[in-house]
Write a structure and sequence with these properties.
The protein is α+β, with helices and mostly antiparallel strands. It has one helix and five strands.
């Protein structure tokens, strides 16, 4: 069974970056916040489930490659 998660940046400040994410690019309803200095994330709804972990890890991996917070992306496994 494949796992798929989409994400899109909705805001960025000096301290944090906020993303929406979900399994459907047209209906991403969950949010995560990435702390810029530590590159640690937290789910806004408090549910650190598999979808949250996939989105967070992919966002960090893309940041590591480009040193920029990605505007959007997806992770599939």
């Amino acid at each position: 069974m494949a796992a798929l998660v989409y994400f899109r940046k909705v805001s960025e400040s000096e301290d944090s970056v906020e993303y929406v994410f979900g399994d459907d690019p047209a209906e991403m309803s969950r949010h995560l916040t990435m702390h810029v200095a530590s590159r640690r994330s937290r789910p806004v709804d408090g549910d650190a489930d598999y979808a949250f972990l996939k989105a967070s890890r992919k966002i960090n991996a893309m940041y590591e490659e480009t040193e920029r917070w990605p505007d959007r992306g997806m992770s599939v496994s």
